[in-house]
Design brief:
Blueprint (H helix, E strand, L loop, with lengths): L7 E4 L18 H8 L3 E4 L1 H4 L9 E2 L5 H5 L6 E2 L6 H18 L3 E4 L10 E3 L7 E3 L3 H8 L3 E4 L3 H12 L11
Parallel strand pairs: 1-2, 1-5, 5-8
Antiparallel strand pairs: 3-4, 6-7
Length: 176
Amino acid sequence: MSRSKPTVLVSACLLGQPVRYDGRASGHPGLLQRWQAEGRVVPLCPEVAGGLPTPRPAAEIPGGQGAQVLDGTAQVLTLAADDVSAAFVAGARQALALVRRHAISIAVLKSGSPSCGNRLTYDGTFSGVKVPGEGVTTALLRREGVQVFSELELDAAERALALLDEPLIEPPSPQA
């Protein structure tokens, strides 16, 4: 049985694209370069996909996390208190559309981001303090069953992808 190699959704900033809020990239780890060369990567910056410019004001989720933004019980705000929640949700929905279109079950997203953070996000005080939680896109992808890793967990992401690469074992044919 033949199947194509599984693809991985990857934050565009981790692929060297200058799409972060400050107009910079976040690096381009060797493993992601290899996956990209193998044609496994689907890049996306959810914030840009949701309609925000680059550069853009930093944003955080005061008093909540990504799942609460999706549920309408928290907001993503800039330091000037501009509500950018709609753009964050729109970008998360675009990520989900790509996941469904490409049958993606693994994502490597930018740590700490109010969109992409998978273990920690900023606490909403714009003081650099991180708290346990996840960003808006991560929350939506996890609801869909996607395994979300950060660039700090590439070994785990590689192991998860290797499991998907294992050949399918076909059941033995019934004896007549």
